[in-house]
Amino acid sequence: MIIAIDGTVASGKSTVAKKLAEKIGYFYINTGLMYRGVAAFARINNIPTNDSDKIANLVVKLKLDLKDVNGKQHIFVNDEDLTEFAIVPDIGSYVSNVADNPEVRKLLVSEQRRLGLEAGDAVLEGRDIGSDVFPDADIKFYVTADSRERAHRRLADDQKKNPDLTIDDVEKAILDRDKRDKERPIGALKKMSDSIEIDTTNLSIDEVVDLLIRLWSTEIKSAKCVSNLKAGF
Ligand code: DC
Hints:
This protein has 10 helices and 8 strands. The chain is an alpha/beta fold.
């Protein structure tokens, strides 16, 4: 069974996707980390991420692997662990350039689909999972939260790097990221008509995970009913 989790930045989707996968024993695929890995490699090697031809030529030569390291998903690019470089806060604009590149998306989407099919039971998390990677996913969740609440969740972390940041600055940055994610020419973030929207504004991580597990088990039961009906039981 394939579970697609898309949603807005700082909505808690990565944390809940990972916890959900752990609890139900599904393979977890953090697709954002793959875009981040390409951006980190380009940055380290001084390849401009806004040069779409150079990035398109680069991505076909990269070997990308997602591996668990001490319970966390890491991204290996050409067998080197680049996670540390892929998650630094100032990688944002590099990753957005890479994620806007149609050739990168074509390649990563097909790789993500292959990984999901290989796993059989998988939770994939990103922006375009329910639309482009697995439009036929068994369950689709669209996770979001009020932008002010999302800014509060990010504030303490962001202030560690820049103590002068205000809540308004953080909220503005979040709204800018939403806009870029939603207006991307290909693979734009959108709520699909068959997605279940989960608003995490007033929920803890554990409450969201419990809710997703309830919805997943309801889906499993109804899928069993349908297959029993088809089999004539
Ligand atoms: O989820 P994240 O913040 O790690 O994602 C990093 C970047 O990659 C972000 O700019 C959105 C983009 N992304 C995407 O375009 N498609 C995905 N499936 C996952 C992430």
